[in-house]
Amino acid sequence: MGEAKKLLMTLIEGHANVIIKVGRGGEIVDVLFQAVDTRMFETLWVGNPVDELPRITPLICGVCSATHHVCSAKAVDGVKGVEPPETAKVVRDIMNYGIHLNNQAMHLTVLGLPDFLPESEKQRSMLKLAEVKPELVKAGITLVELGYKVVRVFGGREIHPINAIPGGVARVPSSSAVEELVKLFEEKRRIVEDFAKAALAMLDENKAKIEKYEAGYRYMMAIDSGTPYNPTRGRVKIVDASGSTVAEFNDTGTDYLKYLDERVVDYSYIRMVTLKNGDLRRDSIMVGALARMNIVREYGVSWADEIRDKIFEEWGKPARHPLLAYYARVTEVVALYEILANLLKEARFPKPYANPPARRGGEGVGIVEASRGTLIHHYKANDNGDTTFINIITPTAISAAAIEADLRKILVGRNISEFDSKQLYAEVATIVRAYDPCMSCSTHAIKSYQPLRTLIVNDSVRVVEGVKI
User: Fold this and answer.
1) How many C-beta atoms surround the C-beta of residue 159 within 10 A?
2) Rg for the chain (alpha carbons), in Å?
3) Which pLDDT does position 37 carry in this prediction?
4) How confident is the model at residue 435 (pLDDT cuts 50, 70, 90)?
5) What domain range is 18 assigned to?
6) Which of 3-12, 21-30, 92-101 has the highest average model confidence (pLDDT)?
7) 256 and 367 in contact (C-beta within 8 Å)?
């Protein structure tokens, strides 16, 4: 069929391959999602003082570093046998709320919503979106900046925060810094309303596109925090396609090991995740904003709950079409903004800010929601306080099998001759971007930069054809 075919894909964080296996007659027989770089950071950190992990582990990612920081501190609390005071929990909560607001606005503005520009637009990027809908992009960037300001005030700096420590936090923000945030949230309220309305309008205009892509994944997982929605604390739930709970466990402790399996595959550096003793093809788990929309009982913000209820009325409950994740992200932007505005108004930070650890070593697990889905940090340390074991399961690692399942749903059984390069790019990119995969979290890059590519291979996994966009 010719020489190697490589289809460049943009608008994701990091780099990976989608491998499309083609039979002798040109029929698509399988699709694989491949992380192409070596995952090394867990091994590199063994031997470090466990107290340092909340400072070190955020270096995994420059996008969701605050969530890694909070999750890491939660795991170290377990290692040290200490329960943080409520003041520290609230400071950590607000930090995670802030980065969620930042990340959801960033994904929609920079990566996701350009996919919903009219097909007549040859270029689909934030730059083109800014030409077509300048106020939407301006509002989105404002929300990105606002989320970063929250992280800076409560985490010590915008990227790779440092405030969470074993047993609590090192400091609380000054009253003047909090008052400044309160004022900003009041001033920008109209902006979040305009952003949400414009984004929802774009999605409403593309319902046919959303409907086209059906779910191939089987399960959804998220933290159910109660009301108001809190991505940092709660019980982890896994639900099936009917919305029935099939597993539930604590957000601390090793219970997750009873319900989840990590799977090593021979074509990717991602360790993929299924239910315990599940099948990698049949039992994939989707995490992220859409999973949270289906699992969280309510956001506790009337407009956000109204948007979600409308989605359920139109698309069913649970809502499962992968591209509905964009509606879920807009819903979260609304909820996060209002929850943060209320928390900042009511903020009181009585001492203590941290409780003393009960021991130097032990075992601990922290589970929180990152913007892309459920994040797990699991540590062990010896009696000297040195890390002896570290396992980090990122949202992209959990969703990798779900991405594959969704790609198979739309492609397997069709003939590769049905697609020109642009069409194939669109089919693959639409699914992958809906998950907003963060490859830097899932793998540790040691090679030179490679963008995400789509490879057409035969049943022996030999590349047989290639076209550039």
Assistant:
1) 17
2) 22
3) 67
4) very high
5) 6-34+407-465
6) 92-101
7) yes
Asked whether residue 202 carries a pLDDT value surpassing 80, the answer given is: yes
pLDDT, the chain, mean: 90
Which amino acid appears at position 208 of this protein?
A: A
Asked whether residue 450 is assigned to any structural domain, the reply reads yes
- Sequence-separated (6 or more) residues with CB below 8 Å from residue 224: 234, 235, 236, 237, 295, 296, 297
- Per-residue model confidence (pLDDT) at position 161: 97
Q: Is residue 10 part of a domain?
A: yes
Confirm whether 45 is domain-assigned.
no
Q: How many distinct structural domains can be found in the chain?
A: 1
Average pLDDT estimate for 302-306: 98
Q: What is the pLDDT of residue 267?
A: 85
Quick check: is 442 in a domain? yes
Distances from the Cα of 355 to the Cα of 81, 175, 251, 305, angstroms: 10, 22, 20, 36
Q: What angle is formed at CA 297 by the lines to CA 292 and CA 299, rounded to 5 degrees?
A: 75
CA dihedral 268, 270, 271, 275 (to 10 degrees): -100
pLDDT of residue 8 exceeding 60: no
pLDDT of residue 203 exceeding 50: yes
Pick the most confident of 34-43, 116-125, 436-445, 446-455: 116-125
pLDDT at 120: 80
Give residue 7's pLDDT: 43
Peptide bond into 85 cis (omega under 30): no
pLDDT at 10: 55
Cα–Cα distance for residue pair 98/157, rounded to 1 Å: 12
Q: 245-273 pLDDT, tens per residue? A: 999 999 999 999 999 999 999 888 888 99
